[in-house]
Amino acid sequence: MPEEGHSLPYVANLSILFKEVPLLERAAAAREAGFTDVEYWWPFDTAVPARDEVDAFVKSLDGVHLRGLNFYAGDMAAGERGLVSWIGRETEFADSLVVALGIAERTGCRSFNALYGNRLDGEDPAKQDDLARAHLDKAADAAAKIGAQLVLEPLSGADRYPLKTAADAVAVLDDLGRDNVRLLADLYHLAVNGDDLDALATTHISRIGHVQIADAPGRHQPGTGELDIEGHLAKLQNAGYAGFVGIEYVPEPDTVTSLAWLPKTRRGRA
Fold it and tell me: From which residue to which does any coiled coil extend (predicted)?
């Protein structure tokens, strides 16, 4: 991928990159590779990690800026994709919100990914959506107090997950009516789901709070698939997007080698 085209800053997602080392060592590895900014999925096994776990995580971020963090999304390996609309797990969502805000106070993180949650057997989808609105309202209020945003992400590879296109997520945003709840546009997920990536710049640009990339098919680094990632990012920047671009791909054959597409001079932000 050439250097020209756009000048958007990159942020390394350390829940998927640098998995060659333990999670608490990944920020140092990213810093060594030239990154100044990082993001994570939920970096703990439970909604309420022990205090020393949180302390260790925050300490591991020395030398980098935490730009984004997911709320607790359940057992991702087992196919769970968030608690925002999960009836019966309200306490876990509320608890992870408190933990995330505590981390934000200590790190300056100001963006939280609220994975919507799968449709549940035996539950009315409308009731799940009502719960999602209530949870997003509460989280948006809390985030607004520290100048933070929430982002909603369409996902691929999860049949029961109801947000598959940018329009799906924007419909939730419209219903919610909160300025600090925005679209997370992951070019990989949207492309795999057959969405129109050009519409991100022409139709949805004012709703985008964050962008992530991986090539498709395969979900590996740019240049391994068929997406014109550089072109799409240039269109987004030209349309007014000025935020970070999350590098969220499965690296091949390893993280450092996979980063050959991105010169070191573009991995940091002065």
Answer: none
